[in-house]
Amino acid sequence: HDLAIRGVDVEEAVRAITTYDIRWGCDVLRPVYDATGGQDGRVSLEVDPRMAHDTDRTLAEAKALWWLVDRPNLFIKIPATREGLPAITAALAQGISVNVTLIFALQRYREVMDAFMSGLEQAKAEGRDLSRIASVASFFVSRVDSEVDERLDEIGTPEAQALKGKAAIANARLAFEAYEEGFSSDRWKALEAAGAKPQRPLWASTSTKDPSLPDTLYVTELVTAGTVNTMPEKTLKAVADHGEIRGDTVRDTYDESRQVLADLEALGISYDDVVAVLEREGVEKFEKSWKELLDTVSTALEEARR
């Protein structure tokens, strides 16, 4: 109501409402943040996804949101598009903690780790306290199976059917292998010695879309130290009810995971094409959700002005 009286436009109203909510969320989770030395108890706020292919606007918006919320346990969420990478580096260099989102491809993930380390190196050169800068790399899981399994169904052979529900986990496990390589490098050790904390891999989109697959699949098969799994409420309850956690299910699976991707290529399913489609659709889905938010707030403003 007050926003309507003040005559703010819908973009500014959304920014005011979301930053208020996220600030409140950060305050609710602050005790967790303090108790874990800044590792957990974090809240993410995404940059307007319509800027996903505009480096300068993404960075400018990230800085504005960081300043508006003004809480140490905030993550600014930036998509890992080609144009997003330099914005991620620049934001981290300025001491802004970043949730890098919408990662599908292993090669892009390596570029994300490079962007993260470049940002910390710049922050260090500017004399910033690296221990206060945090980041997660959000690898989207279930959507890989949604895309690949649809293509496997079109092929329809027994070999194709045998590979259903396997691509996403293989991809995420190989991402963790890349993480282990990246964060055992001399480059990382130099940053760690200066107080930096690693960019944790985060498994996102971990609800199962295919009813024939176990509803806890993308949790129980991706258990390893140093990771985060952001589950929707339904998945969280399923795991609490009947999830079988049987120790580390990621390490020692890399060769088998590579074989899954090789088998898919042999059937004519191009990994590069799958991940390109998923990134494009991922940005589109983010934009659609954002537009729905704008429409909802716009309607509420109009009603309040009547």
Question: How would you describe this structure to a colleague?
Answer:
The protein is globular and about 65 Å long. It is built from 13 helices and 6 strands. A 6-stranded parallel beta sheet has the order 1-2-3-4-5-6. Helix 8 packs across helix 12 (254-266). The protein starts with a helix and ends with a helix. With 306 residues, the chain is an alpha/beta fold. Strand 3, helix 5 and strand 4 (135-140) form a beta-alpha-beta unit.
Question: How is this structure best summarized?
Answer:
This protein is α/β, with parallel strands linked by helices and 306 residues long. It has 13 helices and 6 strands. The protein has helices spanning 2-6, 10-35, 55-69, 84-93, 106-125, 142-155, 158-162, 167-182, 186-193, 217-220, 233-242, 254-266, 271-305, and strands at 43-46, 74-79, 98-103, 135-140, 200-204, 228-229.
Strand order of the largest sheet: 1-2-3-4-5-6
- As a percent range, the share of helical residues equals 55-70%
| Gyration radius, rounded | 20 Å
Q: How would you describe the shape?
A: globular
Task: Compute the number of helices.
Answer: 13
Count the strands? 6
Largest sheet: 6 strands, parallel
Order of SSEs? HHEHEHEHEHHHHEHEHHH
Which consecutive residue ranges, at least 5 long each, have pLDDT under 50? none
What is the mean predicted local confidence, pLDDT? 96
The secondary structure category is alpha/beta
Tell me the β content.
5-15%
* End-to-end CA span: 11 Å
Task: Chart the SSEs and their pairings.
Layout: H1 2-6, H2 10-35, E1 43-46, H3 55-69, E2 74-79, H4 84-93, E3 98-103, H5 106-125, E4 135-140, H6 142-155, H7 158-162, H8 167-182, H9 186-193, E5 200-204, H10 217-220, E6 228-229, H11 233-242, H12 254-266, H13 271-305
Parallel strand pairs: 1-2, 2-3, 3-4, 4-5, 5-6
Helix pairs in contact: 2-13, 3-4, 4-5, 5-8, 6-8, 8-12
